[in-house]
Specification:
By secondary structure, the protein is mainly alpha-helical. Helix 2 runs antiparallel to helix 14. The relative contact order is 0.15.
Length: 401
């Protein structure tokens, strides 16, 4: 009998990721203003963001390892995630209240505490999916979880406009309380997944020893992350400015995320049949072609279509890479692999922020490279993933057989 997919769990994880991503959006919008209130120069905000990403690089992996260990006891991981997230929400909520006091050290301390603890909502929830959900349902649950991220990313330009002149205490309180309330269900989600596993899933096999090809998979993830950061964060706005006024940019940037959400969900069916590596490779190659087309678009409609396809390709890549990481780590190393994946994506974000901080994107020589760099990164990663197929222990589909 086919395993019943716990759709409610996926929708719940989507809700959690939605509110988690919104807190990050609110933080980025207000950070320069709050830093200035705390006595930190506004231009130093970029270095705080760099520190945030370095913390994510370390903590995502550490949280993944922690999740592997504590998930051996039913219910323990949910309580750990809940406790750490409530502490994270408390630190986040206090930021706009502490900043006007002018105590820079206290503001930075709360920022670090929030960043460190917020890693609990990146890899660990996906460990629950990998540990308890039947393998055929993992791609769909991963897609639903990331759907919340995509929705939040799509509305972030509108939030930036809406919240620009608002009192920061209001969005900080609302977003932190909403995330805290949403996370209260994580213990229920863990137990619900465990019940499904105990009634429908066969006993898992022990994970094989780590092999070098898994490191090549993570290297491909880094290339994929760099391609995304360059294409979307460094190139997209400039591409739109070729064909549209600056006032339209906030309404055009979400096209990428619309493609992300629209194409990611059906792609999960392909992952179930062919495995995460195949779909990630195809998505990367599609995104590479779309990135090239976007740079050479002769009109706005062509550019919008290319951005939609690029976003869809990235959605396929991210969802299937997460599914592949869970499958590679199944069972016992789901946290290690997903934590490593998010660590490398954070490293790619760090590289992008560093480029902006150093204003290297304004260098004429580097600007010329930006036209082909995302496509090259995505294409190389796609080919590398295809080369890893024979080395994978077994694809997702075979694991479900």
């Amino acid at each position: 009998m086919a395993a019943r997919v716990p759709h409610r769990i996926g929708l719940y994880l989507a809700l959690v990721q939605f509110f988690f991503t919104l807190t990050w959006t609110v933080y980025v919008i207000y950070l320069p203003r709050l830093a200035a209130q705390a006595g930190i120069p506004k231009n130093a905000a970029v270095y705080i963001l760099l520190l945030d990403q370095l913390i994510f690089v370390v903590m995502d992996y550490a949280m993944g390892l922690m999740a592997d260990r504590v998930s051996r006891v039913l219910g323990k991981l949910g309580y750990v995630v809940l406790g750490v997230t409530l502490a994270s929400c408390a630190a986040f909520l206090l930021l706009p209240f502490v900043a006007p006091q002018g105590a820079a050290w206290l503001f930075l301390l709360l920022t670090v505490l929030w960043t460190v603890s917020s890693s609990a909502l990146r890899a660990p929830p996906l460990v629950l999916v990998g540990k308890y959900a039947a393998q055929p349902s993992v791609p769909w649950l991963s897609a639903l979880s990331l759907f919340g991220l995509g929705i939040a990313a799509a509305i972030s330009p509108y939030l930036a406009i809406t919240l620009r002149d608002a009192d920061p205490r209001i969005p900080f309180v609302l977003s932190s309380v909403a995330l805290a309330l949403a996370t209260l269900g994580i213990v229920w989600a863990e137990r619900a997944l465990a019940r499904t596993a105990s009634t429908e899933a066969p006993a898992p096999e022990a994970a094989p020893p780590a092999t070098p090809w898994m490191l090549w998979f993570l290297f491909a993830v880094l290339l994929l992350g760099l391609g995304f950061q360059i294409h979307f964060s460094l190139n997209s706005a400039a591409l739109y400015l070729r064909h549209a006024p600056a006032s339209d940019i906030p309404y055009l940037m979400p096209v990428f995320w619309i493609g992300f959400n629209v194409l990611m969900l059906p792609a999960s069916i392909a992952v179930k049949r062919h495995g995460g590596l195949v779909v990630a490779a195809v998505g990367a190659l599609v995104a590479a072609v779309a990135s090239f087309a976007a740079f050479h678009a002769g009109d706005l409609n062509t550019l919008i279509a290319a951005q939609f396809i690029a976003g869809g390709g990235w959605g396929c890549v991210l969802m299937s890479a997460v599914s592949a990481a869970i499958a590679i780590g199944h069972t016992g190393r789901e946290g290690k692999m997903t934590g490593g994946l998010f660590s490398l994506l954070a490293l790619a974000t760090f590289a992008r922020i560093a480029v902006l901080a150093a204003e290297l994107n304004k260098d004429p020589q580097l600007a010329g490279m930006l036209s082909w760099a995302p496509g090259a990164a995505w294409a190389i990663a796609g080919v590398l993933l295809l080369m890893l197929l024979p080395k994978q222990r077994k694809p997702v589909a075979a694991a479900a057989a």
